Amino acid sequence: YASDSQNSCYGSDEKFFKNSDWSSSGSENGLEDEMKKKQDYFCRTLGQWVVESNISRVHVGKLLKCIRPYFDLSFLPRDYRTLLKIQRQVILKGLPPGHYFHFGLIKYLPEFLNSLSPHQIPLCIELCVNVDGVPLYKSSRSQFWPILGLLRSIDAAKPFVIGIFDGTSKLLDLNLFLEDFVREFKFLEIKGVILNGKMIPFKISAILCDAPPRSFLTSVKGHTAYLGCPKCETKEKYAKNPNSKKGRVTFPTYNARLRNNHSFRIRRQAEHHKGWSMLEDLNLD
């Protein structure tokens, strides 16, 4: 913040910015890579502050024009759209009854991993995935179905968006929703993540969902449906309540066969399945 009495953007931090490692002079000491990481971190942190603090985009543009020339921060972009990495053209995939946008694993992983120090990078990158429906407004049918990811064993990791479906109801075609994610995962599983010329193995550690989205993603019956138990092959029985018009679903068999990866894939209890999910193409158990 600069008071009205100041005639320029110079402040007490001018000397710090010019003499510290943020300056481009650091490259003269053979620290180009470290300098680039610090500059990228500064831009990313500034962009996060703009979004999280809901700063006016006009004010962000004025701030960039003010600090770039006076504090030797030529690496900063001139425009807020470049700082926030706003895409000029957003390609949406039609996915009835709405649209889908894929942010991407391949794009996110190198950017995030390059921001870490060498000792923070794991020997194997393990991804946790979550999918669930989110209503946007109380008085509207509009809803989001995001695919979220989180990298395990990395303290600095935060949940990130892999893809988002927006529509007026739950999407109709599960595999169209999953195909971009599955394609990228197959590529990363084979090729790994290349970081500084080194290949780091990549795998999915877990897909974490509540019961309804879990049955949707695996294309099986819901957990309250007949033959819908996700853990075993028990057959439910409807029991009438003599004191009420309503009854309840019971599970009288306590020693039913448990489901496992093999029994699921060979459709040992075919009635449990509603269709085929692209997730079955992945190396998951």
Please sum up the structure shown.
By secondary structure, the protein is α+β, with helices and mostly antiparallel strands.
Keywords:
285 residues, alpha+beta, 19% strand
Strand content: 15-25%
- Order of SSEs, N→C? HHHHEEHEEEEHEEEHEEH
- The N- and C-terminal alpha carbons lie at a distance of 55 Å
Using DSSP, what is the number of strands? 11
The helix tally amounts to: 8
Shape: elongated
Uncertain stretches of 5 or more adjacent residues: 1-27
Radius of gyration: 26 Å
Major sheet, described briefly? 7 strands, mixed
Mean pLDDT equals 86
Instruction: Tally the structural domains.
Output: 3
Question: Helix share of residues?
Answer: 25-40%
Helix-strand category: alpha+beta
Description:
The protein has 8 helices and 11 strands. The protein is of the alpha+beta class. The chain has 3 domains: 14-83, no CATH class; 93-208, no CATH class; 219-281, no CATH class. The strands form 3 sheets. Strands 1, 2, 3, 4, 5, 6 and 9 form a 7-stranded mixed beta sheet that branches. It is elongated. The termini are far apart.
What order do the helices and strands come in, and which of them pair?
Elements: H1 14-19, H2 32-52, H3 57-70, H4 80-83, E1 93-95, E2 98-102, H5 105-113, E3 125-131, E4 134-135, E5 143-151, E6 160-167, H6 174-191, E7 193-195, E8 198-200, E9 202-208, H7 211-217, E10 237-240, E11 247-250, H8 261-265
Parallel strand pairs: 3-9
Antiparallel strand pairs: 1-2, 2-6, 3-5, 4-5, 5-6, 7-8, 10-11
